[in-house]
Amino acid sequence: xxxxxxxxxxxxxxxxxxxxxxxxxxxxxxxxxxxxxxxxxxxxxxxxxxxxxxxxxxxxxxxxxxxxxxxxxxxxxxxxxxxxxxxxxxxxxxxxxxxxxxxxxxxxxxxxxxxxxxxxxxxxxxxxxxxxxxxxxxxxxxxxxxxxxxxxxxxxxxxxxxxxxxxxxxxxxxxxxxxxxxxxxxxxxxxxxxxxxxxxxxxxxxxxxxxxxxxxxxxxxxxxxxxxxxxxxxxxxxxxxxxxxxxxxxxxxxxxxxxxxxxxxxxxxxxxxxxxxxxxxxxxxxxxxxxxxxxxxxxxxxxxxxxxxxxxxxxxxxxxxxxxxxxxxxxxxxxxxxxxxxxxxxxxxxxxxxxxxxxxxxxxxxxxxxxxxxxxxxxxxxxxxxxxxxxxxxxxxxxxxxxxxxxxxxxxxxxxxxxxxxxxxxxxxxxxxxxxxxxxxxxxxxxxxxxxxxxxxxxxxxxxxxxxxxxxxxxxxxxxxxxxxxxxxxxxxxxxxxxxxxxxxxxxxxxxxxxxxxxxxxxxxxxxxxxxxxxxxxxxxxxxxxxxxxxxxxxxxxxxxxxxxxxxxxxxxxxxxxxxxxxxxxxxxxxxxxxxxxxxxxxxxxxxxxxxxxxxxxxxxxxxxxxxxxxxxxxxxxxxxxxxxxxxxxxxxxxxxxxxxxxxxxxxxxxxxxxxxxxxxxxxxxx
Amino acid sequence: xxxxxxxxxxxxxxxxxxxxxxxxxxxxxxxxxxxxxxxxxxxxxxxxxxxxxxxxxxxxxxxxxxxxxxxxxxxxx
Lengths: 687, 77
What we know:
The structure holds two protein chains of two kinds. In chain A, 65% of the residues lie in helices and 8% in strands. By secondary structure, chain A is α/β, with parallel strands linked by helices.
């Protein structure tokens, strides 16, 4: 079986992913291009004695060196020596989409064009003379309808025919006009003479084009000063003649080439364009209705992710509970065997903790896929952009941040909708400041214990608002320090609205879920087991537990464990915050998952954490602490130490431990500082 | 007919069709806009231009949203 690599290229919104899914099915491998946070998807497809590895390149409009996505796509095609490039062209929007094709033609790679969404093009009254166009572009053209699965066999046939033919010398080429061609010829000659290493990899003409365009990547690869000077001189000369950068003039000529090719081969029979999309846009981006519609949709996304998510979560909980009991049954009832505890509390508890996030992640990405595939996401970004821009974030950041109020874990993964690295990292870093659902359990324990009925609502609001305010401040600080850089000036295509395909959406959601289990899941599991060990060992002597009831025994065990000892050791450090060792121990537990704070406090006060225990626990808290300490507990839990799942997610999404550790450390320090100030001023005022 | 003179795109009213002359938004953005079809002499229609709100243009049969800042930097006739 012969192995070939096919790179799938195309504009954003050209239906590239749909074609990729059509070719490879659900068996896809998601990873990253080496060294960058650009997602790389690969899939296999067997056809007529060939094993085709399809690689989904990032969606781009061009192949310049200005954006990381374009550079990645370009380098992949050249460095991996792909056998064929399949360019997915939105047939209903042909001119703009063929621009990328002109760049691929210039790279002289074996090329197949898939005219996707050909049904929509036909409905718009576009009639193609594909044979003639194919001759002009010197590439096979296959009409496809990705979302209906049409054109798969024809596309694969064209891919194989093109691979078998191999590289051919092209007869047509884009002519840039006399002045530019003169310069190109000069550069070509000198490159040929001086840059042996480069010409092995790239064609002379392509190098000349890129050098004249002052492409940063290629210019930096040039070694000979002579080549550099000639290219620079050429670019200056063109600027003098045309009064514009060579790159722009050349883009203009490419569009001229496309117009010429299209004029001869495409007939438009109907003159109605965008009509339905225009109508929908008039409503959803309406000045009055735009924001309310967006907020309603966001409410639905939140509800879908978390309300519906509770059902599969409770099934999973039951499943793990049942598994725990089944395994416990292997030992006698009262057995305290370490292996039993490791299996049930450590491993099953840990795996359960990992899997518990899965429904949220799947549902969130289901919702995101629907928003993206219909074309609404682009509008949503714009509606929110004015507000989010003020904090130095992108309009789309709003969506993951909203999800952060449910849970940081899917929210951090949701930042994948942001293309710009700086926007994405800023959003990830401030995410833990959104009060998640697990922290709500802490607030609902503390607030009723210390505050009168009428203050409870405002108190909860206050805590949430403090989180939001800190997030805004942190984002601003990050944007002027370590994540400095221009906020991406906003240019965005408004794709026509489309019906998404259920298959595409499901593949999308499943991939994210699987990625989460594989990448973050393992880290979460490992840290959970470590934390379990810290809270269970060392064990006190059995005789010291005699005469105690089970709750008191638990209390003694926790106090005796590593976590309890650390809690005691750090007590002097926590004292200025108004915390004692009991709170310290519970805080250590809270790094496993925020809600553990409540159950651990239950244990250290020997009241258990069941419903009746909760009320007794509130009474205990009331007896032992002031309302100021209560407030400080909430404040500290809000800001400090994201849970292990969040840390694991940050590591996975930023591809580095340093961001995860930075997030952890900075938030903890800030939490300490703010709580310290609040407690000290508070105790001074209350005397 | 009103005499045509060079003006920034931001001053064009919704529904009007104009011809692009030049963009001065820095090399990277110029290039990005060019690859999206915003090249000299191309005709573009302003779909939406209101304060505040998205600035929407239609070029080569596709709709694009621009930041207000960019629309000041695009000169049209």
